[in-house]
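Notes from the 1:1 (GR / supervisor)

We went over the backlog. Supervisor wanted to see one worked example end to end before approving the batch request, so GR pasted a single chain during the call. The sequence is below; no edits were made to it. Supervisor asked that the structure be written out right there so they could see what the output format looks like.
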Amino acid sequence: VTGPISKQAWHLARRRFMGHTDLLARRFEARRVTMSFIAGALRVALASDHVPLFELRNQFTIGLVHQPIDLLNDALRDWFGIERPRIGVLGLNPHAGEGGLLGDEETRIIDPAITMARNTGIRVSGPIPADTAFTPESLRRYDGIVAMYHDQGLIPVKMKAFHRAVNLTLGLPVLRTSPDHGTAFDIAGRNRADAGSMRAAIELAIELASQRLAAPRCASPALNT
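Structure output shown during the call:
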């Protein structure tokens, strides 16, 4: 379980990592890692994380979308005990591209990534319009959601459970959780900080570790990287 870090401070210290996820991937020599957030039954994995929005177009590939589907499926089975998870994949554009009228990334990139996942037996649906994906009716259809970029996934998570949500790294050979927020230097020393997310990160780490110990199974590629 890690605490929040200041990305600006790391940059000033000439650290080349954007955050803990990148650092831990390097330290554990993990080829594939994905940032995810857990807020009760709402589980969201990110295709891209700390990428400037205008730069995403240069990194948006079939592999970028397929990886979180694959790793989230492994985590839902191995850590959360869901035998056949149902995963929903969000579109990138408004209305999931509206059949190509509002962008073709859904047909060029997201659809092929979904097909690749289905071909390996993963139960996955999409692309889903992001503006309706987080309604209660829609969420009841899925055990996990894959969002295309940071704020697309994080806004609903933090609206639902800002002081209870947890950052869970997928793809590491160890279990790693952290709070869903930053350092909050602006309120340091004022007795105003809420420790709820840190407490939730510790509790989730215990819960998931206990799940793994209580129900051992064949290790997935995500846990053997």
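Supervisor's comment: The two ends are 20 Å apart (CA to CA).
Batch request approved.
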